[in-house]
Amino acid sequence: MFLVALMAGSALAEPFDIPKEQFRSKEFIKGFVGAFGFLSPVEPKVDREESELLIELSELFSDGRFREAEARIVNFIKERKNPTEEGVEPKDVSAALVFQLAQLYYMNDRTKDAERAYKLAIERHPDFRRAHKYLGLLYASEDRISEALPHLKRTLALGEADQLIFGLLGYAYTQEGKPLAAEGAYRQAYLLNPDESQWKSGLALTLYQQEKWVEAAAMLGELLTETPEAGDFWKMQANCYLNMGEPLRAATNFEAMRLKNLADEATLNTLGDIYTDQRKPLLALGAYLAALEMSETVNVQRSLKTAEVLADYGAPRESAEYISAIRSKGVTLSRDEQVRLKLVELTIAKETGEIDRVGTLLTEILAIDPTNGEARIENGLYYERQAETADEEEAGQLLATAGAQFKLAMNSQDEDIRYTATRSYGQMQVRQREYVDALSYLEQAVAMKPSDNLRRYVRQVSVFAEKQKERESREQAEREAARQEREAKENAEEANNESE
User: Fold this and answer.
1) Within 13 Å, how many C-alpha atoms sit on residue 399's CB side?
2) What is the number of other CB atoms lying within 10 angstroms of the CB of residue 7?
3) How far apart are CA 280 and CA 272, in angstroms?
4) Confidence of residue 476 (pLDDT cuts 50, 70, 90)
5) Which residues of 267-290 are buried (b: 16+ CB within 10 A; e: fewer)?
6) DSSP 104
7) CA dihedral in degrees (72, 78, 80, 81; nearest 10)?
8) Is the peptide bond before 41 cis (omega within 30 degrees of 0)?
9) Who's near 325: CB < 8 A, 6+ residues apart?
10) Could you tell me if 154 and 186 are in contact, meaning their C-beta atoms sit under 8 angstroms apart?
11) Residues 6 or more apart from 153 whose CB is under 8 A from it?
């Protein structure tokens, strides 16, 4: 199975969207006055003058006169610190007024000033729930997750449990690499507002990261009904299907991306891999060619792998067509890449029965790389096949050449080549009924790469080898007896001649 690691894209990884409009909402303005002091200890108390100012500010907020509201708070703070009336002591304003100033700073994109004001409000009233909440929002909006998280958790501990807090906690835990905690937070946010796409996409990502493929695929399906042009969601759902063992459902996703012009080169190559694995070579070729056409520069290694896979999976004609498309791109190949491509063409020639072409390609490969172990093994097999149709004398020469090729390949530094060469030589000797010689090499092959099939084969060959040894021993004994009989007869005749 060809599985690809399709990681979540930008649609699920962007900094959290904190709309400033929430600070201007009717709900916010409605709760502007009268909240302070009534939710002790999570809201600071205000005195009479501050309460009157808050009423005045609520009217300014209602009319959208935010600059005036900011100026009014600043002047009030100055008056408190430097009173003009005799007998009035200077004093600081409450955390409530500092918090309102922070809100105004944030709405006007003065985030540094807002941050300082939120912190001051918390310093004056450590359990100020809304100050913790909005400082956490500020940090989250700037993707300062490690700084946002303690304030978000503190907000939750102080009793604030709205969808935004849970959603932000989910995002923060995701960024910290804690998908299980993120899942719990996103589920709460989703429960409170199942229509919010940020909670759905966040939950989908955490499920995906935990490899909960069925649940992730279902959530991604819901997202795709709302945002059918989101290529990242199509990819992630496809990867869920692959991991669920449903490759054709993944292919359906990739085909949908193809129709929507969302598929990139990697997606099309993956689609080709799926079709190849499902033994659908024509569909695979179409996807591979589309990927190749899309590429500005050919990924030679990937293209060679594609050609190899098509050939190895029994699609030689499709592989040949793909190779032709590679060559049409005018790609310059290195020495090793040339050999690799010709080895694919060699596989194609073998599959299509082009024996002369096989011989030509082997000559070309060994001319480029005389020590290529794979080509030497193929050369040995080629000479053995040629021996099948030759006369006895020529066949002997061809088989000797084949054996020499296998033995040269046995000297390779590549363990796989050594194994294949040793096994192939042993199998050739079996076909020539040289069981005793074959057994020695086959046993070496088993020692290199043990396998049940090869062990069974070796046991069968060993039976024939024993019989061959017995026969050769018997024939040797018979020859020795015959020799002794001849010598005895010759000695007797010689003795008779001497006596006469």
Assistant:
1) 19
2) 13
3) 9
4) confident
5) bbbbbbbbbbeeebbebbbbbbbb
6) H
7) 160
8) yes
9) 289, 292
10) no
11) 169
Upper half-sphere CA count for residue 459 (Cβ side, 13 Å): 6
Q: Which two tokens stand for residue 408?
A: 């040269």
CATH code (residue 407): 1.25.40
Tell me whether residue 96 is in a domain. Answer: yes
146 three-class SS: helix
Say if residues 312 and 325 touch (Cβ distance below 8 Å).
Answer: no
**How far is 229 from 223, CA to CA, in rounded Å?**
10
Does residue 30 form part of some domain? yes
Boundary residue ending a domain (105, 134, 160): 160
Taking 80 as the threshold, does the pLDDT of residue 155 lie above it?
yes
Structure tokens at 45: 């108390």
- The rounded mean pLDDT for the chain is 88
CATH number for the domain spanning 18: value is 1.25.40.10
- Residue 496 CB partners (closer than 8 Å, separation 6+): none
- Give pLDDT, residue 33: 44
Give the mean model confidence (pLDDT) for residues 296-324.
91
> How many distinct structural domains can be found in the chain?
2
The pLDDT value given to residue 416:
95
Predicted local confidence at residue 25, as pLDDT: 52
The total of other beta-carbon atoms located within 10 Å of residue 158's CB is 18
Contact indicator for 244, 228 with CB cutoff of 8 Å: no
Amino acid (one-letter) located at 252: T
Is 312 among the domain residues?
A: no
Token pair belonging to 35: 């909240």
At 97-119, the pLDDT tens digits run: 999 899 889 888 899 999 999 99
- Average the pLDDT over 159-174 and give the result: 91
User: Domain end: 160, 185, 219, which one?
Assistant: 160
For residue 169, what are the contacts with CB-CB under 8 A and spacing of at least 6?
Answer: 149, 152, 153, 156, 181, 182, 185
Residue with tokens 């100026």: 71
> Could you give the CA distance from residue 367 to residue 377 in angstroms, rounded to a whole number?
15
Q: Domain containing 412: what range?
A: 371-489
For range 58-71, the mean pLDDT? 84
User: What crossing angle do the helices spanning 265-277 and 281-294 adopt, rounded to 10°?
Assistant: 170
398 occurs within a structural domain: yes
